[in-house]
């Protein structure tokens, strides 16, 4: 039967083992005359292995990416949703204003009908306020998580492997082929315009 | 009692969309003098130059919230009994209680419709 590695151990068992090993080393150092250096070395070696496997676990979570890339991306996307819905709602309401003004030229029945429908549109537009507030709450929560992870990264500092303290590029995208082309709507500052696309197509064909 | 639809009305909300929605609904109800502010401190400044007959305010705004605005308005030397309607997404019991204790005249939970707005305004101003 294969021996269980430190990496396979649940976190709480691993923590108990660390405490046990530290106590054992302290005890043996205290009774150094009776215990061989090899025993102490073996236990220190076990401690070292546990610390290394813990580092590997942290490595696997890509904490630097969460704080440096994924959370900023998520907050940017949500901010873009708020801006886009706000702009669209503004356009709808401009049309409502135009319809309200035009209603003055109608007969009373038509005017009542028009204003009634415009009122329904205005009521529906309040979704933008509610969704905006909800998204703002989510963005705040994400920023708190970001701060917590950043603090953790600072505490661990140079004790982590070098690649953990910096963010990776898109190389962690494990999709292949055409799947890599599906990235959803681009952020306004990163998207290319329709005229750029037209120009690109004209150049290509 | 007849309601003077020429009274000055102040709407306070940090979302421009909501200012426009409430403003348009008020116009449809016949109120023609409607001012807008985007937070409590801006609204309070506007009280220095005008007397208002109605305030409709959001709660969640910065730097001064709707609740703080309400408390400041109620502490003004004049115009402190102006009808004050809170229009907010904050719908917990403790919010309503806090607003009531601060002297709110009525409370509308977002999202709301024109019918609800009119009903609440009638309750604080009288039939119109």
Structural notes for this entry:
- The complex is a heterodimer of chains A (205) and B (128).
- Chain A folds into two domains: 6-61; 63-158.
- Helix content of chain A is 71%, strand content 0%.
- Chain A contains six helices and no strands.
- Chain A has helices at residues 11-30, 37-61, 63-103, 108-125, 127-156, 194-204.
- In chain A, helix 3 (63-103) runs antiparallel to helix 5 (127-156).
- The model of chain A has no long low-confidence stretch (mean pLDDT 78).
- Chain B has a single domain, classed as Rossmann fold (3-Layer(aba) Sandwich), CATH 3.40.50.
- In chain B, 41% of the residues lie in helices and 18% in strands.
- In chain B, helix 2 runs parallel beside helix 3.
- The model of chain B has no long low-confidence stretch (mean pLDDT 93).
- Chains A and B meet through helix 3, helix 4 and helix 5 of A and helix 1 of B.
TL;DR of this structure?
The complex is a heterodimer of chains A (205) and B (128). By secondary structure, chain A is mainly α.
Give the DSSP E fraction of chain A (strand runs of 2 or more residues): under 5%
**Total strand count of chain A, please?**
0
Cα Rg of chain B:
13 Å
N-to-C SSE string of chain A, H for helix and E for strand: HHHHHH
Radius of gyration of chain A: 30 Å
Helical content class of chain B: 40-55%
Secondary structure class of chain B reads alpha/beta
User: Biggest interface and which pair forms it?
Assistant: A-B, 20 and 18 residues
Count of extended strands of chain B: 5
Oligomer: heterodimer
- Describe the global form of chain B: globular
Q: Termini distance of chain B?
A: 9 Å
CATH architecture of chain B: 3-Layer(aba) Sandwich
Secondary structure: helix percent of chain A: over 70%
What is the topology?
The complex is a heterodimer of chains A (205) and B (128).
Chain A: H1 11-30, H2 37-61, H3 63-103, H4 108-125, H5 127-156, H6 194-204
Helix pairs in contact in A: 1-2, 3-4, 3-5
Chain B: E1 8-12, H1 16-28, E2 33-37, H2 40-47, E3 54-57, H3 66-74, E4 84-88, H4 93-102, E5 106-109, H5 114-125
Parallel strand pairs in B: 1-2, 1-3, 3-4, 4-5
């Amino acid at each position: 039967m294969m021996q269980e590695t430190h990496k396979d151990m649940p976190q709480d068992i691993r923590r108990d083992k660390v405490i046990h090993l530290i106590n054992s080393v302290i005890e043996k150092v205290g009774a150094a005359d009776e215990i061989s250096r090899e025993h102490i070395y073996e236990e220190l070696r076990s401690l070292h292995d546990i610390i290394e496997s813990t580092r590997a676990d942290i490595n696997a979570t890509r904490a630097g990416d969460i704080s440096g890339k994924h959370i900023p991306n998520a907050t940017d996307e949500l901010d873009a949703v708020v801006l886009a819905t706000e702009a669209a709602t503004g356009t709808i309401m401009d049309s409502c204003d135009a319809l309200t003004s035009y209603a003055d030229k109608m007969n009373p029945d038509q005017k009542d009908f028009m204003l009634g429908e415009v009122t329904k549109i205005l009521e529906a537009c309040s979704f933008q306020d509610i969704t905006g507030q909800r998204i703002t709450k989510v963005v705040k929560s994400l920023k708190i998580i970001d701060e917590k992870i950043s603090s953790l990264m600072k505490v661990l500092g140079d004790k982590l492997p070098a690649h953990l303290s910096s963010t990776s590029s898109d190389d962690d995208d494990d999709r292949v082929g055409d799947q890599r082309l599906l990235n959803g709507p681009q952020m306004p500052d990163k998207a290319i315009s329709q005229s750029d696309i037209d120009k690109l197509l004209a150049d290509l064909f | 009692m007849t309601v003077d639809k020429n009274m000055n009305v102040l709407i306070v909300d940090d979302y421009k969309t909501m200012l426009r929605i409430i403003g348009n609904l008020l116009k449809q109800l016949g109120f023609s003098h409607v001012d807008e502010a985007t937070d409590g401190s801006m609204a309070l400044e506007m009280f220095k130059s005008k007397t208002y007959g109605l305030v409709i305010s959001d709660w969640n705004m910065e730097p001064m919230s709707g609740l703080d605005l309400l408390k400041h308005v109620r502490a003004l030397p004049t115009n402190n009994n102006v009808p004050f309607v809170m229009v907010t997404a904050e719908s917990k019991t403790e919010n309503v209680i806090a607003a009531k204790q601060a002297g709110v005249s009525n409370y509308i939970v977002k999202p709301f419709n024109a019918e609800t707005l009119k009903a609440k305004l009638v309750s604080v101003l009288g039939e119109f």
